[in-house]
Write a structure and sequence with these properties.
- The protein is mainly alpha-helical.
- It is built from 13 helices and nine strands.
- It has a three-stranded antiparallel β-sheet with strand order 4-3-9, with no helix packed on it. A two-stranded antiparallel sheet has the order 1-2. A two-stranded antiparallel ribbon has the order 5-6.
- A hairpin with a 5-residue loop joins strand 1 and strand 2.
- The longest helix has 25 residues.
- It is elongated, with a radius of gyration of 37 Å.
- The chain starts with a helix and ends in a 6-residue tail after the last helix.
- The C terminus is likely disordered.
């Protein structure tokens, strides 16, 4: 640190213009000090000055400038550790640190096994450690930042050592627990990787369809309106959509059928033909093909027995003018369909 002070002391007195020399100390003295400082440091580079400073300073923690310097991948000096500046890298370091601490805790459980433990207790501890170790490995696989690759390798090495220790114990205490079937690799989460606004739109559309019994057209209209609302909210104030906002809006489907298929909730419904005049619903018939419903051509509803039928046309080019899709399944049935995708352990 003393070397920095000398360098700054020699360089802080610059040669002033001629107009300002009259109010300062004599020119000869100033030039002499400047020349002396220049001769002293002309053969020193930045790296050599830093090296000498480190060598002469017995406590680097006190040198604030040195504490800010670090080496990059090419060995060059730079200010600040990039691992501490990047938000995602910092989160990855936090995750790896938590995994490392959890691994040490599992290792401590193994080391705490003594002769006073029964076989059942030892088996229970080993099963807990095995399950926890597998969970930690899945967490490690989610860390993909190259800046923390060394930390990831160290964490994996700790888990490998832990598994070897458990394997040694398993020679004497084999696993007698029931067979476990892990089908996590077959589980698909349709909401994984989606932003909160997208998931909110999903929830509103599905709730209106499943629990509020909204027709398909109405639920699809809800999704479209939510998409429009999100778009105009994002561009409010003549702003442009960023890539993340565009991806969020693109992930919202405009058809409730698409969303139901995504979540395995595409329950079959019965499309009724609705009379445009009186609102009476006419159930379909399927004389030829289950996928092609057939409806009466006019409404036959009577408001009273003594009155004439409504007689309003129901079809246009063979299709109902107005439809209503009735779901004949309860919310519990939807829940049962959704639970088919949940992982079984």
């Amino acid at each position: 640190m003393a070397l920095y002070k000398e360098l700054l002391a020699g360089l802080k007195d610059e040669i002033l213009p001629s107009s300002a020399r009259s109010n300062s100390q004599p020119t000869s003295t100033r030039e002499a000090r400047t020349r002396a400082s220049a001769d002293k440091y002309k053969n020193l580079s930045v790296k050599s000055m830093l090296k000498d400073t480190v060598a002469s300073n017995s406590s680097p923690e006190e040198d604030s400038l040195e504490s800010l310097l670090s080496h990059d991948a090419q060995g060059r000096l730079q200010f600040g550790d990039p691992k501490k500046r990047h938000k995602r890298t910092t989160q990855a370091l936090t995750t790896i640190s938590a995994i490392t601490e959890a691994t040490r805790g599992l290792q401590a459980q193994i080391e705490a096994i003594s002769s006073s433990h029964t076989s059942a207790e030892i088996n229970a501890i080993l099963c807990t450690v095995e399950d926890s170790s597998e969970a930690l490995r899945r967490h490690i696989s989610s860390v993909t930042r190259t800046a923390v690759s060394e930390e990831v390798k160290e964490a994996r090495a700790m888990l490998d050592l832990l598994d070897q220790t458990v394997g040694t114990w398993r020679v004497e205490y084999p696993d007698s627990s029931p067979v476990k079937i892990d089908n996590r690799k077959y589980f698909f989460d349709p909401g994984e990787g989606k932003n909160a606004p997208t998931l909110i739109a999903y929830s509103i559309g599905l709730v209106s369809r499943i629990f509020e019994r909204t027709a398909q057209h109405g639920a699809s209209l809800t999704l479209k309106l939510l998409k429009l609302f999100g778009y105009f909210m994002a561009v409010l104030g003549n702003q442009e959509l960023n890539p993340e906002q565009e991806a969020t809006l693109a992930a919202i489907p405009e058809s409730i059928e698409t969303l139901e298929r995504k979540f395995n909730l595409d329950i079959d419904c019965v499309p009724y033909a609705v009379c445009p005049n009186c609102g009476y619903t006419h159930p379909p018939s399927y004389p030829n093909d289950p996928s092609h419903p057939v409806y009466p051509t006019v409404c036959s509803e009577r408001k009273a027995v003594s009155e004439e039928p409504c007689g309003t046309p129901l079809l246009l080019h063979g299709k109902p003018l107005k439809t209503f899709c009735q779901v004949h399944a309860s919310g519990l049935h939807f829940a049962a369909r959704y639970s088919e995708d949940l992982p079984l352990l």
